[in-house]
Amino acid sequence: MTKKRKAVASSSPVPSSKKPKTKHLSAVDGLPWKTVSRPHEAGLDLDEGILELEEVDDVEVVYEETEAGRIVRFNVLDSGEREPDEDLSPDEDEQEAEHFISEEDESPDVEEVPETAKSPSTSPATTSKAPSTPAVDVESVSAWQLFSLHSQLLLALSSQKFTSPTPIQAQTIPKALAGRDVIGVAETGSGKTLAYGLPILHDLLTSAVVVPAKTRRPLRALVLAPTRELALQVSSHLNACLNRYDSAVKTEEPEAGPSVPAKRKGKGKKQPLAPAEKQGNAPPLVSVAAIVGGMSSQKQKRILERGVDVLVATPGRLWDILEEDDALAKDVKSLRYLVLDEADRMIETGHFAELDNILRLTQRSFQHNTTDADFAASAPVAVAEPDTQQPMQTFVFSATLSKDLQRNLKKRHKPRLFKGDAPASTLDDLLLRLDFRDPEPEVVDISPEGGIVSTLKESKIECLSTDKDAYLYYFLTRYPGRTLVFLSSIDGIRRLTPLLELLGLPVYPLHSQLEQRQRLKNLDRFKSNPHAILLSTDIAARGLDIPHVAHVVHYQIPRSADAYVHRNGRTARAQRSGFSMLMCAPDERRLVRALLGSLGRQDSDIPELPIEHHFIDKLKQRLQLAKQIDNAQHRASKATHDRNWIRAAADAMDIELESECVFLHLRSRNGTNPLLLHTFSGEEEGPSNRAIKARNAKSAVLKAELKALLQQPLVARGVSTRYITSGSRPIVDDILAGEDHQGMVGVRKSEAGSDLLHVKKAKVKGAKKADGKDKDRGVEKLEDEEWAGFGS
Ligand SMILES: Nc1ncnc2c1ncn2[C@@H]1O[C@H](COP(=O)(O)OP(=O)(O)OP(=O)(O)O)[C@@H](O)[C@H]1O
Question: Taxonomically, which superkingdom (predicted)?
Answer without folding.
Answer: Eukaryota
